[in-house]
TrEMBL record:
Organism the protein comes from: Paenibacillus pini JCM 16418
Swiss-Prot/TrEMBL keywords: Isoprene biosynthesis, Magnesium, Metal-binding, Transferase
CDD domains hit by this protein: Trans_IPPS_HT
Superkingdom classification of source: Bacteria
Protein's GO biological process: terpenoid biosynthetic process
Signal peptide feature range: none
Similarity remark: Belongs to the FPP/GGPP synthase family.
MF terms in GO: (2E,6E)-farnesyl diphosphate synthase activity; metal ion binding
Protein name: Farnesyl diphosphate synthase
Length: 288
């Protein structure tokens, strides 16, 4: 499935005849740099769970990967996280310069909306559903979603004091795009309101579990790097889930959220939720 996504991403890039080479190279560089393709897999699997059109779902799957890739390019910039490496390669701005990296991110974001807007004409997806998908992507990637989560995170670095604030950041920075992916797949397949609600709950729960697991893996990575420091020494380093509730309780929380997410899904009368359930288990058990 993820190879299919990578190959369709290449097909969806705007023709090199029409776009300055530096821009298309910079967009391609980050899109083709690897990554788990988690969000596209969620779109495809949600659509599959209801027996929907996989070709149309592939379009939305690629669009959400473009939005995710834009967010990573911008997150790595000197004005934000100032990272030199991403997905094992130099970050976009290290290769193409800051200005081009900013524009590559902008272009991926806008091009994602373009591709979604074509789903009615190209694949006959109901126009009302396309409109809802556009509405949900604007909401979940925008100021009330991922961008809101990102700024709350940046401001939180000066003094993140409670778990509710951290949850707000995790839900918007991470879960929102995951929820979007599931809803988009569901909408393409004609999900009813009850099924959409179940997909939303599943996404919120596994999105939060995914981010807490990320916090845990980060902490374990730091512990290994720091050698013999005690667990509580390490927990003081970064304001994450383990910082607030400890490592064991964080692990329990990941298991609980995954279980609740799967229960919500199983209550929704989907034709075949098996791949979505597998993804939830994969996220629970991942070690990188
Ligand atoms: C710049 C608007 C803006 C937002 C940035 C995505 C993001 C928001 C920041 C990246 C840092 C981070 C840890 C975000 C939480 C979400 C997350 C775990 C992203 C990484 O997603 P993966 O693990 O990445 O799916 P790959 O590379 O596998 O696609």
């Amino acid at each position: 499935m993820s190879d299919q996504v990578t190959s369709h991403l290449a097909d969806l890039m705007p023709s090199e005849w029409l776009v300055p080479t530096s821009l298309s190279e910079s967009m391609n560089y980050s899109l083709m740099a690897g990554g788990k393709r988690l969000r596209p897999l969620l779109v495809l699997s949600a659509c599959e769970s209801l027996g929907g059109n996989q070709e149309a779902a592939l379009e939305a799957a690629c669009a959400v990967e473009m939005v995710h890739t834009y967010s990573l390019i911008h997150d790595d910039l000197p004005a934000m996280d100032n990272d030199d490496y991403r997905r094992g390669k130099l970050t976009n701005h290290k290769v193409y310069g800051e200005a081009t990296a900013i524009l590559a991110g902008d272009a991926l974001l806008t091009h994602a909306f373009y591709n979604i807007s074509q789903m009615h004409r190209k694949y006959g997806v109901n126009a009302e559903s396309v409109l809802s998908i556009i509405e949900e992507l604007s909401e979940m990637a925008g100021p009330r979603g991922m961008v809101g989560g990102q700024i709350a995170d940046m401001e939180g670095e000066q003094g993140l004091t409670d778990l509710a604030h951290l949850q707000y950041i995790h839900i918007h920075k991470t879960s929102d795009l995951i929820v979007f992916s599931l809803l988009a797949g569901g909408r393409i397949a004609g999900a009813n309101e009850y099924q959409l609600q179940a997909l939303r709950t599943f996404g919120l729960k596994i999105g939060l579990a995914f981010q807490i697991q990320d916090d845990i893996l980060d902490l374990i990575g730091d512990e290994n790097k720091l050698g013999k420091k005690t667990q509580s020494d390490v927990e003081q380093q970064k304001v994450t889930y383990p910082y607030f509730i400890g490592l064991d309780a964080s692990r329990t929380e990941v298991e609980k959220l995954t279980r609740e997410g799967k229960e919500a899904l199983l209550s929704a009368d989907l034709n075949d939720p098996s791949r979505l359930l597998e993804i939830a288990d994969y996220l629970l058990n991942r070690d990188h």
